[in-house]
Amino acid sequence: MKRIRRFLDFVLSRFFLITFLSALFILVFYLAMHTANIWILIDEGLNARAGVVLTGEDADSLTNYFKEDFLAQDPVLSLALTGSSPYGDYSIRSYRHTVKMLSVWCWPWENTARAEVIESVPYINGTILSEKRGAAIEAGGEERLSPPAWDSCRYRVSLVRNAGRWRISGMQLVERVEQ
After folding, report:
1. CA–centroid distance for 119 within its chain
2. Is the CB of residue 159 less than 8 Å from the CB of residue 167?
3. What pLDDT sits at residue 141?
4. Cβ atoms within 10 Å, residue 139
5. What are the helix (H) ranges across the chain?
6. What is the rounded average pLDDT of the residues 3-22?
7. Residue 59 above 90 pLDDT?
8. Contacts of 96 (CB under 8 A, 6+ apart)
9. Whole-number Cα distances in Å, 93 to 51, 54, 87, 144, 152
10. Torsion angles phi and psi, residue 169, rounded to 5
11. Do 57 and 157 contact (CB within 8 A), yes or no?
């Protein structure tokens, strides 16, 4: 009887250990999968948003990354869509957009996530449009011939998952960051 009890103790302890390790492995896998998806979404979404603001690209593709209600309230994007963007008078040839992920958190069983990022555009290559050149020189001199610098900012990003897809639902400005 003693041998049967020791054998059952051995089998049950190994069973619980394997079950616990399997559950831990599944949890870590889903956490890593959602974190990677969120990181890619934020990077590509903010890059697409910067492209709309800087070069006037089509804003319809932003719905792949952002919720509709966020797009309607985004102050940076609304400037570009209303034609009052500080980059509207410039022909932007190229730019370098960077997103530094500070933190991201999402439980595998939740449909919301949060992240903190620093968005910056350290390099903008462009010139002022020829018809705006004279007015720009009068208003600010030679330095107005180059596009203005992009404000690097630290954001707290909120995301929601709907039908298996993550979308950015909000961006709260935490602070402006010096480049």
Report:
1. 8
2. yes
3. 67
4. 9
5. 2-55, 68-73, 75-81, 133-140
6. 92
7. no
8. 121, 122, 123
9. 11, 10, 12, 17, 20
10. -110, -15
11. no
Residue 68 contacts residue 108 (beta carbons within 8 Å): no
93-118 confidence digits (pLDDT tens)? 899 999 999 999 888 888 999 999 99
Residues making up the chain, counted from first to last? 179
The CATH label, of 3.30.450.40, 3.50.50.100, 3.10.450.50, 2.102.10.10, for the domain at 2-176 is: 3.10.450.50
Listed in sequence order, the residues at least 6 apart from 34 whose beta carbon sits closer than 8 Å to its beta carbon are 106, 108, 113, 166
Residue ranges of domains in the chain: 2-176
Query: Residue 88 is encoded by which pair of tokens?
Result: 């509207």
Contact indicator for 54, 95 with CB cutoff of 8 Å:
yes
Query: Amino acid identity of 54?
Result: L
pTM, to two decimals: 0.84
Rounded Cα–Cα distance for residues 122 and 149 (Å): 8
Amino acid in the structure at residue 20: F
